[in-house]
Write a structure and sequence with these properties.
By secondary structure, the chain is of the alpha+beta class. It has one domain (about 10-145): Alpha-Beta Complex (Nucleoside Triphosphate Pyrophosphohydrolase). It is about 15% helix and about 40% strand. The chain contains two helices and eight strands, in the order ββββαβββαβ. The protein has helices at about 55-65, 130-140; strands at about 10-20, 25-30, 40-45, 45-50, 70-85, 90-100, 115-120, 145. The strands form two sheets. Strands 4-1-6-5-8 form a five-stranded mixed β-sheet, with helices on both faces. A three-stranded antiparallel β-sheet has the order 3-2-7, with no helix packed on it. A hairpin with a 4-residue loop joins β5 and β6. The longest helix has 13 residues, at about 55-65. The radius of gyration is 14 Å and the shape is globular. The protein starts with 11 loop residues before the first strand and ends with a strand.
Length: about 150
Amino acid sequence: MKELKPGKDYIGVGCGVLILNKNKETLLLKRGKNSKNEVGYWNKPGGALDYGEKVIDALKREAREEIGVEIDIWGYLPHADSIMKKDGQHWVGFNYLANIKSGTARIMEPHKFDDMQWFGLDKLPKKLSPMTREAIKNYLAGKFIKL
């Protein structure tokens, strides 16, 4: 029997975290050629939820796995829909806001990411993933809930 894949065989549920520093910069990762979608695009840390996993726990896990830090989640942004016709995928993502609580951010999954940088919210890269662009737009518009 074929293994079903989230995002391809059924709508995937994911999460992403807009990590901000004291300079109002956000930490973004550039997706490499081995990423499952959006190759070459800059993205906030995040990923798919595991069955039985709470969104907050998934965000903390993804931050540890992708950039090696512990995060303090302090806000909730509206969800985002991502229908990627080119990649044949459909995802619904929950978006949160956080600061780094401990650790120094570094690429922990070099097979998935080519680069990582802090960007000023007014100096973002052109190839920004739609879900990340929407999260930043909502943050700048004040469309978030403090937790």
